[in-house]
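Incident log, structure service

09:12 report received: a user says their structure output differs between two submissions of the same chain.
09:20 pulled the input from the user's history:
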Amino acid sequence: MNDPRDLIPLKPLVFQVLLALTEGERHGWSLVREVRQRTGGDRILPANFYRTLRGMLGDGLIEEAGRKEDRRYFRVTTLGRDAARLEARRLQELLGDARTRRLLRKT
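09:34 re-ran on a clean worker, output below:
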C-alpha cells in the first residue's frame, strides 16, 4: 500500500501509536504507557494492542527498528507519517465543522 489516503480514517489506537512514534523509536510497553497517558488512562488490552502493532507493520505504517534486552523497538515509516498527517487534517476539519455548528467554542 503506497497511498496513505487509502488508510484514512485511522482507528484511534493506530493514530495514537503513530503520534507517539513521531517522537522517535519506542518499544511496545513504552507505547502502551504513552497511549494510556494521552487517553486519560484508558485500559488497553495487551492482545488488542499487539494485534494493532502487527496490523500496522503489515500496512507499512511502522517498521521494526531493532531489539534490545528482549524488547522490540518500532519506528514510524514515511507512509505512517503521511497517514498521521492526513488523519490530523481530517480531525481538524471535523473540529472546524463542530465549531461552525456551535457544538464547540472557538479557542
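09:41 both user submissions now match this output. Likely a transient worker issue. Closing.
09:42 reviewer note: The CA atoms of residues 93 and 99 lie 10 Å apart. The two ends are 37 Å apart (CA to CA).
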